[in-house]
Task: structure prediction
Amino acid sequence: MKEKDFDLIEMLRGELDKLASEKELNTFDKIVYIYYRLCQIFNYDERWYTFDDDEKFIQELYDKEVNPHQVDDTTLLCSSFSTVCEDVYNELLDLEDNFLNATVEELYSHCSVLLTLFDCYLVVDPILEAQDFLNAKKGFDLKGLTIDCNSYIDESDFEEKLQLALCKTGYYNHIGYLDYLNMVREELKKIAKANHDEFPNKEMGINYMDYFANAVKVGNLGIFEIDQLLNVEYLTLFGASPSWFGIKRSVINDDEKKESSYLYTIYDSDKKYLVHRVDGKAIIETIDQEKVKTLKK
Result:
């Protein structure tokens, strides 16, 4: 899963300098920008779940060190992300002038970052209850930048401040994906009504899996995020998960390479779809039964 090395610190420093030349940024604006850019760059390592019976390997994943000046793998767990996040904030932001500090907080094997800024304590956690590795890439609402209960700031005031920072730094310049899905949902309803069918119906759900595999742009999503997006799209379009339509996901592990793939099959159908990595990039493709036989399980 090796990728071409890049210097994350210098890349973000250049982006912030360019943004600051166009708009006056305060420290909170920079915190927000760095947060969603990190979420756009990194993906969650699905192997935490798919190899959960291999304790030694799971521990290696958890302990993996990522050098922010030489990133060669953008797939990681909360532990590595929090350490990278802490490094980036501490190196790119002016701590002394802003009374700011970034520290990794670990609780029951889950890591997040606590940022202190004046009287505000920010919790940076894109994973536990947020799925912001997906949200940030698709322009969905971000949920992983919140205030700690000890903060001397009202939650509604914080949310307003967050939305202003997102707008100011350009996060909302490329959104509209959920609006698009809701528009498609209305069109599907019209088609079902014209054909005197129920909505949703099994045929629609099965056909949409074909569309998702062949037409939806997954961009730089990881395997874990592609599965999340699939579920988001089905719930938004049909109000039901893929499993309601007979779509089943199974895991295929390559124990030698320590790599995982997701195989999607449809009940009473020959259609099969594989989410796997090619040259470090996650893709989804339609496969036949012969290809399935060659996969390691």
